[in-house]
């Protein structure tokens, strides 16, 4: 597994998690 693919996947997952957390906080407030 290439490091480029791993970093790309990690960045994508991190972005999705941040979006979900932001949406969750927005709903709570």
TrEMBL record:
InterPro entries: YnhF-like. Keywords: Membrane, Transmembrane, Transmembrane helix. It comes from the Bacteria. The chain crosses the membrane at residues 7-28. NCBIfam families: small_mem_YnhF (NF033411). This is YnhF family membrane protein. The lineage of its organism: Bacteria, Pseudomonadati, Pseudomonadota, Gammaproteobacteria, Enterobacterales.
